[in-house]
Amino acid sequence: MAVFALVFLAPIAYSIYLSVFRTQLVGGTSFVGFDNYRQALTDPLFWDGLGRVSLFLVVQVPIMLGIALLVALAIDGGRLYGKSFFRISIFMPYAVPAVVASLMWGFMYGTRFGLVGNLNDLLGTAIPDPLSPDLILAAIGNIVTWEFVGYNMLIFYSALRVVPHSLYEAAEIDGASQWQVVRAIKIPAIRGALVIATIFSIIGSFQLFNEPSILQSLAPNAITTSYTPNLYAYSLSFSGQQYNYSATVAIIMGLITMVIAYVVQLRGMRKES
Amino acid sequence: MTARPRRALRAAALLGVASLALTACAGGGDTAGSSQDPVDSETALEEGGEITVWAWDPTLESVAADFEAEHPNVTVNLENVGTGNDQYTALQNAVAAGNGVPDVAQIEFYALPQFALAQSLTDLTTFGADELEGTFTPGPWQSVTASGGVSALPTDSGPMALFYNQRVFDEHGLEVPTTWAEYEEVARALHDADPDAYLTNDVGDAGFTTSLIWQAGGRPYQVDGTDVTIDFSDPGTRTFVDTWQTMIDDDLVAPIGSWSDEWYQGLSDGSIASLVIGAWMRGNLESSVPDAAGDWAVAPMPQWEDGQSVTAENGGSSLAVPAASENAALAYEFVEYATVGEGIATRVEEGAFPATVAELEDPEFRGEEFEYFGGQAVNEVLADSAAQVAEGWQYLPFQVYANSIFNDTVGQAYVSDTTLDEGLAAWQESSVAYGDEQGFTVTE
Amino acid sequence: MTALTASATGRPSPRLRSTLRPDRPRRPRSTLTTVLTGIVLVYSLVPLVWLVINATKTQADLFTSFGLWFGADFALWQNVVDTLTYDDGIFLRWFGNTLLYVVLGAGGATFLAILGGYGLAKFDFPGKRWVFAIVIGAVAVPGTALAVPTFLMFSQMGLTNTPWSVIIPSLIAPFGLYLMWTFSAEAIPTELLEAARMDGSGEFRTFFRISLPLLAPGIVTVLLFTMVATWNNYFLPLIMLRDSSWYPLTLGLNAWNAQAATAGGEAIFNLVITGSLLTILPLIVAFLLLQRYWQSGLAAGGVKE
After folding, report:
1. C25 in a domain, yes or no?
2. Is the complex ipTM more than 0.85?
3. Each residue's pLDDT tens digit, B303-318
4. How confident is the model at residue A272 (pLDDT cuts 50, 70, 90)?
5. Do A233 and C144 touch (CB under 8 A)?
6. Do C250 and A97 touch (CB under 8 A)?
7. C-alpha to C-alpha distance for C218 and C212, rounded to whole angstroms
8. Nearest CB partner across the interface for B439, out of A21, A26, A239
9. CATH number of C284's domain
10. How far apart are CA B172 and CA B294, in angstroms?
11. Which residues of B14-110 form beta strands (DSSP E)?
């Protein structure tokens, strides 16, 4: 618990402390009360970033969890050839550090010499540049999906494994179809897992940082320094030395994330009971 | 599990620490080495000691080893903390935290004013560095003295020149351009002849853009202490914008970011046929594009007006002694050894491009024929460029930040309908806003 | 004898069938499902295949050959050797550092998560709901936001640029704590603990004798997650460490990648790619070896509400 305090509570307290001051390169530090908060809440860059991760959240998370759920159901359904091979293979990208994954996909996204370019040459297709401003969010979504489909799949799969067999047997006696079994038994049974996976995915989306930050060197114009709120906070403190404002942005982001995660959890739990 | 009161105490103690850290943060560095008495260099070297050097320049490794060999009592810890921005971040953090600051730090010219203004660096005049004027070429010297005093000593410089792929030029019967107007024509001819090939690449690079404006006579930044002027509407900037906007509009620059793997591929296979870039590129081509050996050649930088010979600096870095160094005298000895002493020879041998007049005028240096460049005496062109750098350029005291948002603003001109003009205006606006916020007096 | 004949003819006796029956009625395998799942499989594996293939290429082949097929030279061994020996074998040093961080960081995090999770699940105390809120909150606070304050604090304590600056923050794994909490709640029947307490067994004795064995699958699962988290940790060491001899692999690889962008530097993309491959191999091996444990760990309650 002392470690917990050291690693979480103290920095949070310190961030809050920082957020009510302003330090200037010229003129030093002064107490500014809630000025930083006022500024952040009217900062278009912050809202743009928040809008972007929200869009990401609304599109990428359902796709990722959907695929994960389908695969988990497919593997659990026993209608698959070589299911343990599938299970471990699809999980494997989780072992790849985000840094390495982004570097790797970055190499592959290249339209001239990368895999995308190779494919265009080979098939005569015209896959557009994934690193252009219009597509970059999708490109990032793809990397994140790739990294975490297997992880979420495994969570769902594990939850499915503990569904009591008696339920299935009962359903079979009733002559329920596969689809009915899925809807009536499996999905409700793993609601807890779904809620947790959703919460962690939401948090992950709001904290989006590693992937855009590494792709930034490849697509500097598409990924601005305020591309995601987290990246913005980082740029503020590390390029701009605006530690105070950066702390403010981080705190607001943390609060928003907490509130949303909490709401999702409440809703998820209520439905369950 | 019964230790709750103690826990609370611990947290309180931590908060105390936290506020201490803030105080340190607010205090910044001490007044730059003013308390330092001129020190007898012999004493410092004999007494010896340990110094920590943060640098990413690979040639400094041998220099440090030689320095240690020459002065047995001295230990040099050379640490690569990251390149450019990564290191500045680490340095800023260390200065803010008030500990872990190195004794010597490599800092690029464009970032120097930022550290100098925050008084994070020792003024090397204390050690008599002001007498070294004339030892270095004008461009670099101007950069290290821009903030008053001598903030650092230049290690290498980046006078610009045109690196071009002779093989591609021959293949398409292209003439080496001497003006930017010709450069544009050649770019068009090449891209028409081979749609996969481009004369150069650019996706928006703050260093490149400011260097070209510099060469064109633009002086968008004027700095006097904390009074800053930012104005991208002067004639020099106009000249650059007019030409470069056409290059972008007509799809004459490859949309490939410098330093990416695709960039190296393009340099290797000739689909990026030239670069107007700092002299240090010589070493990078040799080490990182070995497959194109024999293809590349170097010519003087294209001119904005026919018959001129004006160049600018692109990149280049220096070694500074942070104010928090506890062994500044010894640190300075190392800096001097590496930048004006015997270290230069070692570094030049390993491929660095020097910033000292003596080396640049040395017939042996100028006459060296490079196998990679088909036997061309490349240094001659590069050294001439160093002597022709236009005077009077200044960087902002917050250039690191300004450059970090370059792609947010000007970069948009490369990927959308935004024009360079609008981009530069947006860049100016953001820079001004930041300057204001940081307490500078900014005029547009 | 009868059983033997029966099975030989493919018609096992009813008794035998009932014991051998798989957990669930075996349904016909479906080609369609296999194909659909196969698409996801290909999606998951192609980048890894790309990585393996490109680890066999020389720097020159990387630039000139098709991404999903081998280049002119098969240079895997050369690349591996180069990776391991480049810059006096710094890669091995990074590897060792990463192991150190994983053993101490992930090990410690797991230990704390077990204690904390178990305590929260099996002991009632006021403010428990708040603890839960704080734990979820801790997960929600952006790591980047904590980085700078943590750095400044650690710097005051003289911890930056030491392995401790990486290990101490990784000791806290909110997700691990959460997992152990729910797992303890599920896996250890409270009645069992009460029975033990009635018998006069001390809390510690109860914990080690009764609870710990029951928690084993959960522990392996948490260990695996914290291991992955520590192994893949990038941002924190980026800020905390300056001395490249304390770098973990991720940071080292990025430094190699950045080297291409240095005046006087040498582009070593082939080593970056081979290094990436070598970085993920140990984790994949760990996944495979520990498969049985972590799967049951997740299943038995890790993610149940």
Report:
1. no
2. no
3. 999 989 999 999 889 9
4. very low
5. yes
6. yes
7. 10
8. A26
9. 1.10.3720.10
10. 17
11. 49-54, 74-79, 104-108
